[in-house]
Amino acid sequence: MNVRIHQSWKKELEPEFVKDYFRNLIDFVKTEYSEDKCFPPGSEIFAAFDHSTFEDTKVVILGQDPYHGVGQANGLCFSVKDGISFPPSLINIFKEIETDLNKPIPSTGNLERWADQGVLLLNATLTVRAHQAGSHQKKGWETFTDSVIKMISDEKENLVFMLWGGYAKKKSKLIDSSKHLILTTGHPSPLSANRGYWFGNKHFSKANEYLQKNGKLKIDW
Fold first, then answer.
1. Catalytic residue annotation
2. What is its EC number (predicted)?
3. CB-side exposure of 167: number of CA atoms within 13 Å?
4. How far apart are CA 56 and CA 133, in angstroms?
5. What's the Cα-to-Cα distance from 113 to each of 102, 110, 219, 221, rounded to whole Å?
6. Can you give the pTM of this predicted structure?
7. Please, what is the angle between helix 203-213 and helix 88-101, to 10°?
8. In the chain, what is the greatest distance between 2 CA atoms, to the nearest angstrom?
């Protein structure tokens, strides 16, 4: 499995890569990919760690699982490949950006353009079996991504963490709120958004205000 990870991240993630749980996880993933159709493509499993350097990372958005439909997942949470119709959660993300920043809804749901600016689009679980949501949960990915979140919090400062929905909010315990901005709101899925838990959160303008206040370039959402 020829995965792509930026060199700056390899150095930071190496301590996890050599642990027993991670080796067992990779064995599981290799078996799954050889026996079933799984997503994202093998080379894109670690895409979140490939688009921007560790040093340039300034925003973290946490998702739960990759999309499990054919051709959707590209290794970045909430993102889909070019030409794929927008999943409901992504539509609601773009609607919030439209009202928050007066930006038109884009023609593609591919969020690589965010990742290239230093937005870590991290799913808690990095792989999934086709058409079976949650099929790779509790196999070790959460241990890995929890360690990543804590490491980023410990080693960096003045980052923005966007935690959407109950699952993501629980990760706030891994983050040092004295030196980072933690933004929480409901999940952008229709179930939550239509009940008033998503729209109007203004996370995107709040993130940019915080970044600029701390001498960092804002994100072109």
1. 65
2. 3.2.2.27
3. 15
4. 32
5. 18, 7, 10, 8
6. 0.96
7. 60
8. 50
